[in-house]
Structures are given as structure tokens and as C-alpha cells.
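So, could you explain this one?
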Amino acid sequence: MVKITIYSLLIFSTMAFAVPPTETDTTSTNLSLIDVEKEVVEPCFMENKTFQGGEEITYKLYYNWGVMWLAAGEVTFKVNDMGGQYHVAVAGRTYKSYEWFFKVRDYYDTYIDKNSLLPKTSIRDVSEGKYKLYDKVEFDQENKKASSLRGKTRDQARKKEYDVGECMHDMLSVIYYSRNIDFERYDEGEEFPVKIFMDKEVWPLNVKYKGKKSRKKIKGKGRFNTIKFSPQVVSGRVFKEGEEMMVYVSDDKNRIPLLIESPVSVGSVKAVLKNYKGLKYEMTAKN
């Protein structure tokens, strides 16, 4: 059986899935240095044009096993404006009706620098079945270091320092960074990379731009104009060979994820927009 965890939704929402790191992957990698039409963008900088403090978005998680879709749980993303930084708080839990199968209580907090949209501090406090984890990471972006205080609980956590590349993200900051990429400069079928530090490693991500789709139906919310992506997945324990994940984000100034669909080794999973409020702009993608 496949576990539907909040961890999975977070990875899906980054519009990518991790591929195995190599020795060179953990050295110098510039996430924000994008060469588009030979125009070089300033490294370690991304202007925020898509979200604001007060934004709150909730998703409903579903798992399909055979012919039946099960409503598994919900996850909510909240953005707080703290002056020179944003605090992104995420809370996810399974529904009681699903907990006979697998119980999740997950909490994520990331403090993101406003000038670069890079993380300063990242905290994961998760309970997924019998699995427990507390991981607090302090990022030193200037010196390309990450210090992790990690253990089953906060009291059991031990500190360790890691070398990471330039402009390094965590699993939450990369979501908000990606929402600000100028997708109009990409051709359909073109790929772009990002990287995150997670679980003591640097993970490279590859995403293929699949173009725009008009009037995509989102369950319970109506139809939206969307931008479509196909993140790279890795065959093995979770994914089968040749399968694709699909991500749809709103084709407007907000660029919020609306729907994430993915086959897995047993069945399939999806995350569907349930509610949103406090957006920076009117939701013009809905029609």
C-alpha cells in the first residue's frame, strides 16, 4: 500500500520530484541563475510578485486504489508577513475516516527572506503512522552551509552541519519561488531545474513546461485557465517506469497550484484545491 502523506503533497506542489543526487550536485548550484534567451538574471534573487501576507490555501488529498477514490486528508498553507521575512506555516492531517489506514499529523514552518525568497530557517515536525521526525535547519546562504538539528523529537535531536550549493531552497520556499518564475519565457516542452536541501541531502529537481490549458475542471471549484507542468519522477518504490506527474497552476498573477495528479506504484494520488483567501490579486483564472 502507498502512504498519502503531507510530505508527498509538498513535493508535488514544488512542481517537481527529487532525482538521486550525484557528487557534483552538492557543490555549487545556483537556483536563481536562469539563462533565458541568453539573458542572465541576478543570482540569489527573486522578486515576489505573486503572494502576500495573509494568503491561505487549503487542499484536499485523495487516494485511488482500484476503482474507488478515498478522501484521505487536508493540508493548509498560510503566509505571514514578518517585516523582512515571510513565515510560511503548513499544517496537514488525515481525516478520521482514513486513519484506520494511515494517520498523519504534520507541521512545517519556513522563514523566507523577502529579498531573495530563500529560506533562513526551516522546521519539520511530523508524525506519520509510527514515523516521527523533528528537523530544524538553519541556512547560511552566504557561506553555503546548512545546520540541521534532527531527531525523532526535539529533545532527542542532534546537530550536524552540511555543505550545500548557492541559493539553496527547502521544500516550502521553492514553492513560493517557483510561483514567481516568468513562465512566458519558456517554450512548451522546455525544462527548468531547481534544487532543495532536505533529509540531509541536496536534491535536484527537473520540471517540464507543458503549456497552457483553458477551462480545466477542478472538483468542487469550477473551471480555470491553467498552466501545466510535468515533473520528473523516479521509477522504483513509489513510481513505475515511464509514468508522469501532472501539476496545474492558475494562469493569472497568483499562480497558485490548483490540481496535482500522480500515478504511484499502487493506485494514484491527487491534491485538489479546496479553499483560498487573502490572495494578492483577484482570481481571474476562474471562468
